[in-house]
Amino acid sequence: IEDLDKKQTVSSTSVSVSDNILPETIIFDSLDRSINVLNPASRTVSDLDNALLSGVVRHPDSATMGQSGAVFILGHSSYLPSVLNSNFKAFNGIQNLKWGDIIRVKSGSSEYVYRVEKVYRAKAANTTVPISGEKQRLILATCNSFGSVDDRYIVEADLFEIKQI
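Given the sequence above, the corresponding structure tokens read:
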């Protein structure tokens, strides 16, 4: 994978790469779900919590599309029988993703295709999410139940392909 403003080839597909392309939509074909991604500039807990009311959120300290490192996206999940805000169920079912499942992220005129590598449950107090590195990755995190502060479901996926749309 080459640096900025050069061509990038991932799985025989070439596109221009920029360091400030933000994710707009995340699509889970296996869950039959498409979710808006918000990109707040602030990293304060209150601002991130507020943004989560309207969708899932890319953490502002994580990579942008096309950068090395991890695009880290947080979202709510809730299995309560009645939920007034559907965004509280945005990441319902991500714990059921399996190795090889595809997650697509749209941004501008490109679609970034990721392959799930690992899905696991982790204690919130012991969970650190590495967002740097050479690989281009997608990491998703949600609580195991709405309002829970104990456990998290984490999905790690590697960039597989970039398509022009």
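The mean pLDDT is 82. Try to locate this feature in the token string yourself.
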